[in-house]
Specification:
330 residues, alpha/beta, 2 domains, 15 strands
């Protein structure tokens, strides 16, 4: 019997329940994993609350990321063997699969080998964050050595990965955070500059940092009316990439006459993880950075699987810097 986290109604962390149930054998294209660690994401909270872009079907499970060992293989999974240490890349719908459990079924296409030097806890903190940041900062060619990159919500796991990837490609990461409490931790994490938005004027500080030029790319998960403030700090010809919707209010398109010419677009890592060729390139990029030591996932705190509700409460409190990981004892 496996231990699986499920919920039967929308709500807060209290709706999450650990249940014992049969997982079964993997079907065609599937893999059964023994899970050793699970990465938590803001998407998990939004899905549990019913405000994600897909709605749960009850009883529902959740979770995009995990690391562990291959237990069984379905037909047509040729790139893995039983016993392989692996990690799960977010590339499926939460209505079909989930990683919150000690034994789970997942699509083989999103299971990637885990380097021998990377333990399960670290591997569970990698793929959502680094593939999300990889797209705009490394894949598209928008960011060049010497460019300034604004990273909002920089204390998140994606923000931390973006800081490291920006440095890896030779760019200058400018981190934005609401309060001064996280300033030093962001500097220690590699940010070249930190802007505390509760205390400082964001466009003015960007102007000081960049000598009046503005940032080449702004990478924002918040959305909402704040994008107009961000747009005032972007260099002519630069880009605003919105990859989340933490602010539920309407996100306006920056008015053409109010700002320099810039490109604005939305983005999600699923653009990469559901495209086999782009995913292959992303995995190669991230694994190379891990091997070189350029990428080191920041893990704020770990919880046990039985503490899953407490882990969600900690995530929602927004006091963490980096990733929250749930470990699984066997």
């Amino acid at each position: 019997m496996a231990r699986i986290v499920q919920f039967d109604r929308l709500g807060g962390p209290e709706v999450l329940t650990v249940r014992e149930m049969e997982v079964g054998d993997p079907g065609p294209g599937e893999v059964r994993l023994r899970v050793d660690a699970i990465g938590l994401n803001r998407a998990d909270v939004m899905y549990r609350e019913g405000v994600y872009f897909v709605r749960p079907r009850f009883p529902a499970t959740l979770g995009y990321e995990a690391a562990g060992v291959v237990e069984a293989l379905g037909e047509d999974v040729g790139h893995l063997r039983v016993g392989d240490p692996v990690a799960v890349v977010p590339g499926f719908s939460l209505t079909e699969y989930g990683t919150y459990g000690d034994h789970v079924l997942v699509p083989g296409a999103v299971v990637v080998p885990r380097p021998a030097t990377v333990d399960a806890t670290t591997a569970a903190a990698v793929w959502m964050a680094y593939v999300t940041a990889y797209g705009p900062l490394a894949e598209t060619g928008e960011v060049r050595p010497g460019d300034h990159v604004l990273i909002t919500a920089a204390s998140s796991s994606v923000g931390q990965a973006a800081i490291q990837i920006a440095r890896h490609v030779g760019a200058v990461p400018v981190a934005a955070t609401r309060t001064a409490a996280k300033r030093q931790r962001l500097l220690d994490a590699g940010a070249a500059h930190v802007i505390v938005t509760d205390d400082e004027d964001l466009p003015a500080r960007i102007g000081e940092i960049t000598g009046g030029e503005g940032v080449r790319l702004a990478f924002d998960p918040v959305a909402g009316p704040g994008v107009e403030t961000i747009a005032r700090g972007i260099a002519p010809g630069g880009s605003l990439v919105v990859y989340g919707a933490l602010d539920p209010r309407t996100t306006p398109l920056p008015r053409a006459r109010s700002y320099p010419a810039l490109s604005t677009r939305t983005y999600t890592l699923h653009e990469i993880t559901t495209d086999p060729q782009r995913l292959r390139r992303a995995v190669a990029f991230v694994n190379a950075g891990l091997a070189l030591g350029s990428f080191t996932p920041v893990i704020d705190r770990t919880f046990d699987l039985g503490e899953i509700a407490d882990a969600h409460r900690y995530l929602e409190a927004n006091g963490h810097v980096g990733k929250i990981v749930v470990t699984v004892a066997h």
